[in-house]
Specification:
Chains A, B: Its main location: mitochondrion. Two copies of one chain form a homodimer. Chain A is an alpha+beta fold. The first copy, chain A, has five helices and three strands. Helices cover about 45% and strands about 20% of the residues of chain A. In chain A, helix 1 packs across helix 2.
Chain lengths: ~120, ~120
Amino acid sequence: LYHERVVDHYNNPRNVGSFDKSDPTVGTGLVGAPACGDVMKLQIKIDEESGTIVDACFKTFGCGSAIASSSVVTEWVKGKQMEEVLTIKNTEIAKHLSLPPVKLHCSMLAEDAIKAAVKDYEAKH
Amino acid sequence: LYHERVVDHYNNPRNVGSFDKSDPTVGTGLVGAPACGDVMKLQIKIDEESGTIVDACFKTFGCGSAIASSSVVTEWVKGKQMEEVLTIKNTEIAKHLSLPPVKLHCSMLAEDAIKAAVKDYEAKH
Ligand code: FES
């Protein structure tokens, strides 16, 4: 039913946690999925000199596919520039995790959350 | 955002696991939520002489509200008669967990699953 990568990230989610929202080097994305009512918080920590994302974390009460999607995205963004991660598409995440069509909105949460986190960081500066 | 009971059951879900589906004393309910695509498996173990549910367990990749709903239901059904648990309504579960309206479909999964488990047990006999 679920791809082994979903099961893996569900059982051992990477980078679960929170950064201090008020830290000027932190960008916070808080987004919701209208389809199911789930909410996701994803945060990035930026090296201000280089604009590199040095750390990322998430929290969600969403489903296994949402957990896996955000877990994967927090791994993908580390070491990348902010502009780079804005090109991450939910379809890429869904493909990586072999999500069925009914679960696309879960990967959309992760795409929306990383975009919102970058936007929040930029709004602070 | 989430009631403390949801957080409690999400962090320490009760009765996660599986019984042997082919055991004649076991009833298995496997149901899906069209709203979000999540699936839940809930199983009961029956004392054949008295018709009492002596044990229950569940598994799901659903969201925090679905996990909490099924965790609560597995606690509620233990020690009850099969006919009794057929009267469990998702609105009771939702009220107990203070689920918001957008999360009612998650508690519906638990109601559907316990009904399906009883039906499966009955079909075996
Ligand atoms: S069903 Fe809500 S995030 Fe997946």
